[in-house]
Amino acid sequence: MVAARDVQKEDINVMAITDHIERVRDGIRRGLFTSEAAVSQGILLPILSELGWPVYDPTIVTPEYSIEGRRVDYALCHPENSPAVFVEVKKVGLSESAERQLFEYAFHVGVPMAILTDGQEWSFYLPGEQGRYDERRVYKIDLLTRSTIEASERLIRYLSFERVCSGKALQDARSDYQNVARDRTIKATFPKAWNALLVGQDSLLLELLADKVEDFCGYKPDLDTCSQFFENMLRAEQTLVSDQPPTPKQGRKTIPPRIILGDTRSMGHFTFEFRGNRYTARSARDVMVKVFQLFAKEDNEFLDRFAARKHGRKRRYIAKERSELYPDRPDLVEFHSIELVPGWWMGTNYSRKNIQEIINLACEVAGPRLGSMVQVKVDQGC
Fold this sequence. Notes:
By secondary structure, the protein is α+β, with helices and mostly antiparallel strands. It contains 14 helices and 12 strands.
């Protein structure tokens, strides 16, 4: 009878958490979570509440838990005032490289499980295990790319109040960590990950290729040429492996682009219209910059909301500090950045494919009212 009640309760939790995750996904896409406080109040605490945690009891869910003069964002306690899980919260897109701080907190108190989240990505760690920080990560969830059911089930498995209190959550986390199937899954995922790199064409990857070509022949290709090389590789691999095109990631909503950029190398200048006014641009980069400036002029919260979205793996498409645009390549800052409006900078060292994705993301954050006002075409013979 007890087991039946537990199963029923978990089913209800799955449904409630799934509904909340759907709302969170919509808010992330719209750039609504612009600060750590917004992530905490709008994402973390509601999920903890659905998982059974008494979020209004500071002896159980303790905010700003003090550790030798420093503070961890939340300590989830069992018994009262005795931390069982530490949770560190970051702004959306800024969770990378924050593991060290979280692990130091956990080591000081001997907390066996730690969670790092920016609301979109959730990383579950066992700080007491061996290896690098990333090797002690049990599981990682991206709410925009994983199915809501899978995300809900993992949150329940590692973070439900009853399972943490009973020790089952920690037991399952350790079992998952040690499971030899993890290694098999990683090896089987290598081709898929490589394919995703070719499809996504991350700017870091493009620049690595361009730098290496220059090392060998003395001439450095532009990023569009590198992008075309990856596209040719991808088509060749798809021909060898399967006639079927790659399927989109599960859980990601496909949003048709409102702006389609032509090939500037062969088709001339861009023209686009906004609110009935016509603008001319010399390149895709100029289109990107002007679209952002127009959106920012129409909506004074647009840049803040866009900055709250997850950008590249390490870079920020826009930032208030110029140095944040290329933290891995400070040599690019001077010649490949532009001040959009006073106090906001944009990086410009991107291929046409990357720029297309950035503009599409801007339209998504701007919302249907503003996004639909922009129409871009390529002028022949300009």
